[in-house]
């Protein structure tokens, strides 16, 4: 019996007070100590690892929560939170530390919801992507913290303008044909980016993330892709304009999930600004390029939104507890969203997983690919979809799947190997399946319209 | 070597430090060493270098995080104020390892291989405020190890293998405010362990193997605000153990083996805000056990073995915001037991053995927003039970034995946003009409979990979302005008007339309504035929008007 319990759990913890949380600004060493403390308190469900180093040599520490830390379990989705990418936007960093402590504490207290979350999800939390910038900002403290002091990394680079620009490629492909997802990186990408960005991209390559949020400050709104607009030139000046992804409806829903579970984001009136329902399309707010959010969507399987969480980029210590209370439920509910849609195994006739198979949804021109073990995850709103799985050397398969409001619907695919695999590559150009595989979705769509 | 000695004598009082211990203030740093240290300081400005495999920040903070580091590097500058060793293979800390590092304020060892710390190893830090030794295979701390840390505010010795602490270990750390001893194997503590650290604000003994607490252990800690004794092996609490903790605001006793708690245990804790008693084996609580806790806002009694709650147990805890008693064996809730808890927002009674809810059960809970009653044995809910709960946002009743909801039960829930009702054996007959209507009318504001009918058979497993009113086999409750009853013959039998507007209510009442034009008088016959028995009711009605008139009859048979 499908209980549809998932969506109803969201109010469970609203007024539960997390046990013994200490609210203060964590300097680098405090952050490290806090993460290791959680790891020691909850050794069976956590792991602390570093994804790389900052310019000055600080580690970018991640704490992972899972019932089997360190291992990707097939069909268990990977989720991530990233905080403090701008060094002076510190609330995300503190919220993520609190979240880690909370998950551990509540797991130890047999909290049903938290236990279930950890058993069904692999959660990665990176409280600070820019530890060098943070130290600069923290030296100044909340009072007199300039708008930009500590925002950048040590080399004065804005990390959220430092990712390879795939939007331009995508917009070009949209016009002239070519894929609009899983876009390849330029050969020299490593030389183009800062160490923190490089660590992030490497992290994205190592884990098949499904859902993510990037925590910022300076406004209170949930911002979804694209961030970069197609810059419409009107009589000499440019203006920002709504730039939607093929998954626009889903992204809106994800953003609303956070804003409505948040204490006050959904009201829309915050920081002398107004955002209807507390959400905004990135480009329609202001256009930015080389950002992390669009990069996730255009290069990986991960859906990321950007959360602006506080008017003050560096809130006073006394405000932290209230902020945590306002965000706790939203942080948990948003993680739950990783379970919405379809997921399944792509296997060959012998039951072996096929990695890098392509899963397409008719009507949504954005494919996802299967992970190393052959499992895939496709976030979708409730509804009925035509799902196609294809892999090089196999006949494709299409099925219809219905997505409910609750846990992901399982849709497995067993694909038949093409008889003359090698030949087909060169000779069998008329094979419909083959064409489907090599011709990118965007091009397909263009042709048909 | 200069050696100063003096003794302190304090008067004996009920609370506080009350033994006349002789304190030894030892300053055992030789002058020659101090001079040498000064020389090092000066020297270091000319030849500053960061130790291999360490990261140095502004020459004052050093992080060493490499398994290549087998011992504390020798070239650590004396200018350093913060020193962190993380996941190194350092095995010991010797007496001279940190010689001259007198500016150090913070010293942290996490996940190293430290098996021993020499008794004088930490005697070099007159300014040290924060010391942490975590997750090392350290099984012993020698007496005197912390004797020369006069400024120490925070001491964290967690997740090591320490089984015993020397009684006088903390005699000299008199400024200590935070002491965290979580996750060791400490099984017992000396009575005078904390006698000198009277400024302590937070003490954690969480996750050790403590079986008994000396009755005087906490007496000196009159400033203590947070005390964590969770996850130990305490089976009982000595009477009066917390009597001196007048400032205590958080007390964690969860995860022990407590079966009873002496009635006066909490009677002096008037500042207490948070009391965690979950995951013990408590079978019963005495009537007045919480009577002094007028400031208590969070009380958690989950996962115990409580079979009943004494009637007056919550009479004085009027500040409560969260009350959680899930996972016990409660079969009933005494009437009015929560009636003074006007501030409770969340009440959790999940996973008990509750069978019914009476109208007075939740009386007085005017602020309640979350009420959790799932996973009980509820078969019956009286229809006024939620009448005070106008602010309720969430109500969970799933996994019970409910077959129906009486008319009007949910009417007071103006603000409910989530109602969880699945996994009950719902009987989808006419009695279900109220709930079905309520759900359809409130679906814009309230999320209702997916429910299924259990009975009648032809509706089994039918989703409520697909259920229509006409499925409930209820005759419609519309009044039917019975036309053209001839008025000339007042003996005429009204065949078939009032059959359609009759319906059966959830209470078992049969209603009939009809409208008849009566001129003189009318006799109403109602015959109930059941197998061979026939019961007949006869009622007469006379029209005393001078003319014929329309009369609406409402007949109720109960
Ligand atoms: Zn930012």
Automatic annotation (TrEMBL), chain A:
This is Carboxypeptidase E. Its EC number is 3.4.17.10. The keyword Disulfide bond does not apply. GO terms for molecular function: metallocarboxypeptidase activity; zinc ion binding. Belongs to the peptidase M14 family. The active site is at 308 (proton donor/acceptor). It is a peripheral membrane protein. It is an enzyme of class 3 (hydrolase). The gene is cpn1. It comes from Xenopus tropicalis. Residues 1-19 form the signal peptide. It is found in: Cytoplasmic vesicle, Secretory vesicle membrane; Secreted. It catalyses: Release of C-terminal arginine or lysine residues from polypeptides. Keywords: Carboxypeptidase, Cytoplasmic vesicle, Glycoprotein, Hydrolase, Membrane, Metal-binding, Metalloprotease, Protease, Secreted, Signal, Zinc.
From TrEMBL, chain B:
Gene3D superfamilies: Ribonuclease Inhibitor. It comes from the Eukaryota. InterPro entries: Cys-rich_flank_reg_C (IPR000483), Leu-rich_rpt (IPR001611), Leu-rich_rpt_typical-subtyp (IPR003591), LRR_dom_sf (IPR032675), LRR_TM_domain-containing (IPR050541). Its main location: secreted. Pfam families: LRR_8. Transmembrane segments: none annotated. GO terms for molecular function: carboxypeptidase activity. GO terms for biological process: nervous system development. It is found in: Secreted. Keywords: Carboxypeptidase, Developmental protein, Disulfide bond, Glycoprotein, Hydrolase, Leucine-rich repeat, Protease, Repeat, Secreted, Signal. GO terms for cellular component: extracellular region. Residues 424-475 form the LRRCT domain. This is Carboxypeptidase N subunit 2. It comes from Xenopus tropicalis (Western clawed frog).
């Amino acid at each position: 019996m499908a209980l549809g319990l998932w969506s109803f759990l969201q109010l469970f913890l609203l007024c539960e007070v997390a046990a013994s949380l200490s609210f203060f600004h964590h300097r680098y060493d405090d952050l490290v100590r806090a993460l290791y403390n959680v790891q020691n308190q909850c050794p069976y469900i956590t792991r602390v690892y570093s994804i790389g180093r900052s310019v000055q040599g600080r580690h970018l520490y991640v704490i992972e929560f899972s019932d089997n830390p360190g291992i990707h379990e097939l069909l268990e989705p990977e989720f991530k939170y990233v905080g403090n990418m701008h060094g002076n936007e510190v609330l995300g960093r503190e919220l993520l530390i609190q979240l880690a402590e909370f998950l551990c504490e509540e797991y130890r207290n047999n909290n049903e919801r938290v236990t279930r979350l950890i058993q069904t999800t692999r959660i990665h939390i990176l409280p600070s992507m820019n530890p060098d910038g943070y130290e600069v900002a923290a030296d100044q403290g909340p009072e007199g913290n300039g708008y930009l002091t500590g925002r950048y990394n040590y080399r004065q680079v804005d990390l959220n303008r430092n990712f390879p620009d795939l939007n331009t490629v995508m917009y070009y492909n949209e016009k002239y044909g070519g894929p609009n997802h899983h876009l390849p990186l330029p050969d020299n990408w490593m030389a183009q980016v800062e160490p923190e960005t490089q660590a992030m991209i490497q992290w994205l390559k190592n884990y098949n993330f499904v859902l993510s949020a990037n925590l910022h400050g300076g406004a209170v709104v949930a911002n979804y892709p694209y961030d970069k607009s197609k810059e419409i030139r009107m009589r000499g000046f440019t203006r920002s304009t709504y730039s939607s992804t093929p998954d626009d409806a889903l992204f809106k829903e994800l953003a609303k999930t956070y804003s409505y579970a948040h204490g006050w984001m959904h009201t829309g009136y915050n920081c002398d600004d107004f955002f209807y329902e507390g959400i905004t399309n990135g480009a329609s707010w202001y256009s930015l390029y080389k950002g992390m959010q669009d990069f996730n969507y255009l290069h990986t399987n991960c859906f990321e939104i950007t959360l602006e969480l506080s008017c003050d980029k560096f809130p006073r210590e006394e405000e932290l507890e209230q902020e945590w209370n306002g965000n706790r439920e939203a942080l948990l509910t948003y993680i739950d969203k990783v379970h919405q849609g379809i997921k399944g195994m792509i296997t060959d006739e012998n039951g072996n997983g096929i990695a890098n198979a392509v899963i397409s949804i008719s009507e949504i021109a954005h494919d996802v690919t299967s992970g190393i073990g052959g499992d895939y995850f496709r976030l979708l709103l409730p509804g009925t979809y035509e799902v196609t799985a294809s892999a090089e050397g196999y006949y494709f398969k299409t099925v219809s799947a219905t997505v409910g409001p609750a846990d992901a619907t399982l849709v497995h695919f067993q694909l038949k190997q093409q008889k003359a695999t090698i030949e087909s590559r060169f000779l069998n150009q008329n094979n419909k399946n083959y064409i489907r595989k090599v011709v990118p979705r965007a091009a397909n769509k263009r042709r048909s319209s | 070597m200069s050696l100063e000695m003096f003794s302190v004598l304090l008067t004996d009082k009920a609370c506080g430090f009350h033994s006349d211990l002789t304190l030894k203030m030892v300053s055992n740093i030789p002058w020659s060493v101090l001079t040498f240290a000064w020389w090092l300081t000066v020297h270091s400005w000319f030849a500053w270098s960061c130790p291999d495999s360490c990261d140095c920040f502004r020459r004052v903070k050093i992080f060493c995080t490499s398994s290549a580091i087998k011992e504390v590097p020798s070239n650590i500058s004396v200018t350093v104020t913060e020193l962190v060793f993380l996941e190194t293979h350092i095995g010991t800390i010797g007496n001279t390892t940190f010689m001259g590092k007198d500016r150090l304020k913070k010293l942290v060892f996490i996940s190293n291989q430290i098996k021993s710390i020499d008794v004088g190893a930490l005697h070099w830090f007159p300014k040290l405020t924060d010391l942490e030794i975590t997750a090392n295979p350290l099984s012993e701390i020698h007496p005197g190890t912390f004797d020369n840390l006069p400024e120490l505010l925070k001491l964290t010795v967690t997740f090591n293998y320490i089984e015993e602490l020397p009684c006088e270990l903390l005699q000299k750390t008199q400024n200590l405010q935070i002491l965290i001893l979580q996750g060791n194997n400490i099984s017992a503590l000396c009575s005078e362990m904390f006698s000198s650290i009277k400024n302590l604000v937070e003490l954690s003994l969480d996750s050790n193997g403590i079986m008994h607490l000396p009755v005087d252990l906490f007496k000196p800690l009159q400033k203590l605000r947070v005390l964590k004794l969770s996850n130990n092996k305490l089976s009982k609490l000595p009477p009066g153990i917390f009597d001196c903790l007048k400032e205590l605001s958080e007390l964690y006793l969860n995860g022990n083996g407590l079966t009873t708690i002496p009635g006066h245990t909490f009677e002096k804790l008037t500042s207490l805000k948070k009391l965690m008693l979950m995951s013990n084996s408590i079978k019963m609580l005495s009537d007045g056990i919480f009577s002094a806790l007028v400031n208590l806002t969070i009380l958690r009694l989950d996962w115990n073995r409580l079979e009943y709650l004494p009637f007056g147990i919550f009479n004085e805890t009027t500040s409560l915001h969260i009350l959680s008693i899930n996972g016990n064996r409660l079969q009933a809730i005494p009437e009015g037991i929560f009636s003074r808890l006007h501030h409770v927002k969340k009440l959790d009674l999940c996973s008990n053995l509750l069978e019914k809810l009476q109208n007075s059960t939740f009386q007085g809970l005017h602020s309640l927003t979350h009420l959790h009653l799932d996973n009980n044995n509820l078969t019956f809910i009286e229809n006024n039970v939620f009448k005070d709960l106008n602010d309720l946002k969430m109500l969970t009743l799933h996994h019970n034995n409910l077959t129906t909801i009486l008319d009007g039960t949910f009417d007071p829930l103006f603000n409910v946003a989530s109602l969880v009702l699945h996994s009950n054996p719902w009987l989808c007959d006419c009695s279900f009409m109220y709930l079905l209507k309520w759900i359809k009318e409130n679906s814009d504001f309230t999320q209702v979990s997916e429910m299924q009918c259990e009975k009648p058979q032809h509706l089994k497993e039918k989703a409520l979302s697909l259920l229509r009113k006409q499925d409930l086999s209820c005759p419609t409750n519309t009044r039917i005008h019975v036309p053209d009853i001839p008025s000339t013959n007042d003996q005429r039998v009204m065949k078939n007339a009032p059959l359609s507007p009759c319906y059966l209510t959830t209470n078992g009442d049969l209603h009939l309504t009809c409208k008849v034009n009566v001129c003189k008088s009318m006799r109403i016959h109602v015959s109930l035929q059941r197998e061979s028995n026939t019961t007949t009711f006869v009622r007469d009605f006379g029209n005393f008007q001078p003319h014929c008139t329309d009369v609406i009859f409402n007949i109720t048979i109960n």
